[in-house]
Amino acid sequence: MSSKIVPDTGEYLMIFSIGTPPTQVQAIVDTGSDLTWVQCIPCKNGQILIPSIFDPSKSSTYQSLSCFHPSCDNLRERRLDCQKIQEPCYYKERYTDGSTTKGTLAYDKFLFEDYLGDIVDVGNVEFGCSSQSLGIFPGNQFGIVGLNRGPLSLVSQLGIKRFAYCMVAPENQGSGGRIYFGSEAVLSGGQTPLVKGNNPDFYFLTLDGISVGDQRIPIPSGTFDMTAYGGGGFMIDAGTQYTSLRAEAHEALVQALRQAIDLPQTRSSRLCFIGTFDDLALQPDVTFHFKGTDVTLMKETTYIKQKDGRLCLAILKSTSLLSMFGNVQQQNYYVGYDLETGMVSFAPVDCNIY
Questions:
Q1: Residues 285, 319: Cα–Cα separation, whole Å
Q2: Where in this chain does the record put each Peptidase A1 domain (predicted)?
Q3: Which of 16, 134, 186, 213 registers the highest number of CB atoms within 10 A of its CB?
Q4: Residues 71-114: pLDDT tens digits?
């Protein structure tokens, strides 16, 4: 089983279909969420131009779940109160950027188109049918495919033990980019173990250090460790655009790059250089040293070109103890997850043809 994924305003959208007859929808690939949801009719926030909106009244296999259904309990604090046993299971999901979505927990048939063009019907999947979504949902991003290890995620519901994705650069929107599940997800390249933390739903990795060229940058020991209270750590997340590092690590990286990159720098709060990607070609690379394997970033995923032509660091300073490996830095890597062995793999490839 597999599906095409396409870049859209800092995220990657997975294309699939729901219902009988099937309605094609698209939603953000998110390894940091469990609840899969799509925008449904009636839509109370006036987003009438959404290209992939699902009308449950037109699907003969759609069924909402009651608020006393066991799956409703899996929403935990996102579940809204209900008074009657026949009342639907209502939810409200809040994201770290302040965006919210609310609707009804339901189930319906999910269908995927594999790389040969064949339709794969995986049967009923529980998902959120959202009637109102507010906040930062740019482009076509009105839905999420939850791929973490929570009970409501797509991988948990389908019993998937392996999945992998290959994300193309945004300028290559018309080609490549797929996500693979089950036997089609062939793990390759270097592997690093998943870390067991206080929240087993998320994918945490051990980051031993970062290099600029052949020089390790001075980062205090334990910077990327999880705290005894469950905070901190280094999480990989396909639904987050940019990698972010704890303040002390980010400052060390910026200082090392200032000294190592032989290009004019601009006077700004961000680290930016004046030049082109060709000018950066012979400059030192940034490498993330995970336990068991290294991931060297391309220049195009280390820096982002601004409208004024500057090349600015595409790695942000975290506002918390948590550090994250975002999707920009995962571009043109075949990233595999083996949930049975607890490993994540990285293989550098050209995702346009993979």
A1: 25
A2: 12-347
A3: 16
A4: 999 998 888 888 777 899 999 998 887 888 999 999 999 999 87
Tokens of 172: 């290559």
Contact 158, 151 (CB under 8 A): no
To which CATH superfamily is domain 190-347 assigned?
Acid Proteases (2.40.70.10)
Supply the pLDDT for residue 136: 59
Tokens of 237: 């997340």
Residues 6+ apart with CB under 8 A from 221: none
Does CATH place domain 2-184 in 2.40.70.10? yes
Domain range annotation of the chain: 2-184, 190-347
- The single residue of 34, 114, 208, 237 carrying the catalytic annotation is 237
Active-site residue identified among 8, 30, 73, 114: 30
> How do residues 179-234 score in pLDDT, each as one tens digit?
999 988 988 999 999 998 778 899 999 999 999 999 999 999 999 999 888 789 99
| Distance separating alpha carbons of residues 251 and 117, to the nearest angstrom | 47
Specify whether 237 is catalytic: yes
Q: pTM for this structure?
A: 0.93
